[in-house]
Write a structure and sequence with these properties.
With 699 residues, the chain is an alpha/beta fold. It is built from 21 helices and 27 strands.
Amino acid sequence: MTKENIRMRAASLVSRMTVEEKISQLLYNSPAIERLGIREHNWWNEASHGLARSGMATVFPHAIALASTFDPALIGKIGDAVSTEARAKYNNSAEHGDFDIYKNLTFWTPNINIFRDPRWGRGQETFGEDPYLTAMLGVSYIKGLQGDGAFLKSAACAKHFAVHSGPESLRHSFNAEVSEHDLWETYLPAFEWAVKAGVAGVMGAYNRTDGEPCCASGKLMQEILRDQWHFDGYYVSDCGAIRDISENHHFVETLPEAAAAALTKGCHLNCGEAYVHLMEAYEQDLITEDDITEAAVKLFEIRHLLGEFEEVRPYSDIPFDKLDCAEHRELNLTAAEQCLVLLKNDGFLPLDPDTSCKIAVIGPNAMSVTALEGNYNGMASEYITVADGVRRVFRNAHVRAAKGCNIWTANKNDCSGFTNMISEGVAYAKNADITVLVLGLDCHIEGEENGIQNAFFDGGDKKQLALPPTQMELAEKVCDVCENVIVITLAGSAVDLGEKLTSHARAIIHGWYPGAVGGLAAARLIAGKYSPSGKLPLTFYRSETVLPPITDYAMTERTYRYFTGKPLYPFGYGLSYTSFAYSDVKLAQETGEAYEISCTLTNTGSREGIEKVQVYASYTDSRTPVPLYQLCGLASVKLDAGESASVSVKVDKYWVKAVLADGTRTEPDGEIVFHVGGHQPDTVSCELLGTVPAKLKSK
């Protein structure tokens, strides 16, 4: 079925509607039009890391955790699993005539904003701070969700377009000011690649970008998205963003004017209620019927592509038992294992899984299901917390668990559960041979706009990278009474554990929000059931004091690409239980569009392991502003101890071109140097890991 045929069918259907009926279809909760055989359709659905908000489904690690896998192919498999579960659930809902919110196949995911500041609470929904990594993982997830058949398996939607990453407390009125250089080098590439990959939808952000509301922006929506990138999908507002155009941005005065401004710039669908005012806008000659018709036709193109109007609905043979099936559970554990990042290990790990020692699992996230889920999540049929995982893996050990403290409130006692807090946690640690200290945050305090305002949090954003004092008090007291401490942090961003805890801990694992089986993955890592391979998708700074204000969208001194200070843990960093050596690194081929870099990779350790091959570009004698380093190629390679393999990495020239002040990409002035290894070529990474990536000149 061709796009032309789809558009003709959609246009024919819309031509039989009245103006009022067309307008009704531009709301996310579109009503049925029974005389035309059109059922109700609620466009709002979420699938950031699994089918969300509609009951039981596989809960995969959150997006920032998935980014730590550095593995686009794995993320593609997860996208395919999510869309399979979506079709299974949709088939059941359709059979019962249930087309309510979170029941249809139009997913407002992935979030491909750049996580430029670790204080941003919604950064957990993204793929990290790097444009290349975000683009590659975003494209893979989109393709997994949408499938490769004649019909869409589900419809992905790239959000939030564009230049959006906090602050949460100001998002409805904030104006993000950005240079053309930073716009095109950092904030737009992931969206451009999503459009190239055929993403079905794009969601506009709440904020303004350089003065224009993102849901009524001629520059973003018309000049860039459609004219330059030839986007042919649908555009949807973030929820309530069109109302913001008048009420918070004061870009126009009235809601009819706000609705008209959005529609005429190409916002086809309104999440919110502002488009109920489109009839007023039409009667005031602010919009034409052609404007309304074009939007309605675009939306029905998507519904046709999903197979809604087919006599035999595509993917209708996917059964309900694909939900939470054994195959998806196995994939979930694989993802959870590969997303965990081992930040420190003084040789204490791995532990003997047959040990009979006393293990205390202490901390506010030790038994927390919420800290497994993150936000925009589904409901798993089974959760395995860190305490659960330790009990399952270390079956001969004597395992005790305690909360120890709240995440941030300083209460010494949790009255709702009559739970002794710090004193109990310290007592267990004192009587243990090993303490697994599970700290961090959760989505109730770190995440989307939540109204929380205190010394630590600002509407979902963090004010500081250090953990709240109540956790640090617990941690330091545990260090005073237990020699062998393993720290696991469950949080959506970088966390500063402080000097005492960092130096005392025998090992530190950053676990993000690792999904329903994240606790099992963490315990298996501790026991050496696999070798860790996760890499940091964002820079861990020593303090928020080295960062510009969160309201500053310039990239100067932000992310590994422009930060000139010394990070605590660099982007791309992560320890392993084995080691890898690179040899015969060479430029195998160069075409007009890409470089091909090859090497021989050898597992020189004593364990099976996965190496995340990373290729970075740096530049010599460039007169154009360029990053210190730019990730531009990836490969994930699994090798047995002593095994070697030939590895080939394609580097698209898009990612190594210099971006001029006007935003155009061009060949850099100087020479390109490629760095090939298991980490970034910066000094801190080389010191921490004891290896230096191989250098390769492009000419």
